[in-house]
Amino acid sequence: MNIERPMAEPAEATATDLYPTRLPDREMVMHRTDPVLWSDWTPDAPISRDEAEHYRDNGYLVRRDVFSQDEVRLLMRASQELREDHGRIRAEDLVTEPDSDAVRTIFRLDQHSDLFARLAADERLAGVAQFLLDDAVYLHQSRLNYKPGFTGKEFYWHSDFETWHAEDGMPHMRAVSASVLLTDNGSQNGPLMLVPGSQNRFVACRGTTPEDNHRSSLKKQEIGVPQPETIDALVRELGLDVATGPAGTILFFDCNTLHASNGNITPFPRSNAFYVFNAVSNRVAEPFAAPRKRPAYLADRGEAQAIDVQRGDLTRARD
């Protein structure tokens, strides 16, 4: 498989905005110019050829039976403890549901738990991300997502890259998200929905970015989302997939894949550990379509230190 790989320059050297968005008077759909799968597959790759091609063609990959049952139980217990003891979490790292004080998101997950920091560096996550992006990687963002039973609210349709480009200054589509399911995700309790193939279309959204847009968008995103008619057209053309699986399943999805999730009115909560791996060569700089940078808990702006990929059983890495 021969894949053309344009060089991803550091953001400081990128003079041209390749993906203009937050347009004042219109929405526009354009074709992606960056690769999706940046590496050529070889037998030494951490995923199979079929998995690599599925990711390239559909913009996401679901991997099951990656962790042992002991590892999954350990992660689930650590997740529950963080939620129950969220009073010790920094206020800026904590987001509650729009209509209640129920925990919705805990940011900087790797800083709040040694176990989840170790998970971020695990070869089953970071090693796969390195392959998909053909580069060393660092954590652009990490968080723990909760969608409680009965009251968990929806996440509306969006491309993560649109926000990371507009508000964080991520220049290229050379980032991948890894979501580790910490509860069983079935078709009823608000699993992630994805539009396969949408990673190849960039929706330049309509509307300028307000000051401190993140304060409201973390609870309900209204700026930087495609119009309903655009979502309708893409779903009719490309289809709609649902990522389900038991606790311990890993979902990798490209930064530009259009995704969303329904609200959860079942008794069964949904939670996941979420890591954004960005290529070191793709570090963020000045926002392309926002008046100021978002806070560090949403977009790491350090020296983009490459993750030292770790191997071994997670049960040996305890808080």
Provide a descriptive summary of the structure in words.
It is a single chain. Residues 1-15 have low confidence and may be disordered. The chain has one domain: q2cbj1_9rhob like domain (Jelly Rolls), CATH 2.60.120. It has a 7-stranded antiparallel beta sheet with strand order 2-11-7-13-5-4-3. It has a 4-stranded antiparallel beta sheet with strand order 6-12-8-10, with no helix packed on it. It has 319 residues and is α+β, with helices and mostly antiparallel strands. The chain contains 8 helices and 13 strands. The longest helix has 16 residues, at 69-84. Strand 3 and strand 4 (103-107) form a beta hairpin. It is globular.
Can you count the helices? Answer: 8
The rounded distance between the terminal residues' Cα atoms is: 42 Å
Q: Largest sheet, order of strands side by side?
A: 2-11-7-13-5-4-3
CATH architecture: Sandwich
Mean of pLDDT:
88
Name the overall outline.
globular
CATH class label: Mainly Beta
Assign the CATH superfamily: q2cbj1_9rhob like domain
Structural class: alpha+beta
Count of extended strands: 13
Using only CA atoms, what is the Rg? 18 Å
In percent, how much strand structure appears in the residues?
A: 15-25%
- At CATH level 3, the topology is Jelly Rolls
Largest sheet: 7 strands, antiparallel
Please trace the helix and strand order, writing H or E for each element: EHEHEEHHHEEHEEEHHEEEE
Query: What percent of the residues sit in helical stretches (DSSP H or I)?
Result: 10-25%
Number of domains: 1
Question: Uncertain spans, ≥5 residues at pLDDT below 50?
Answer: 1-15
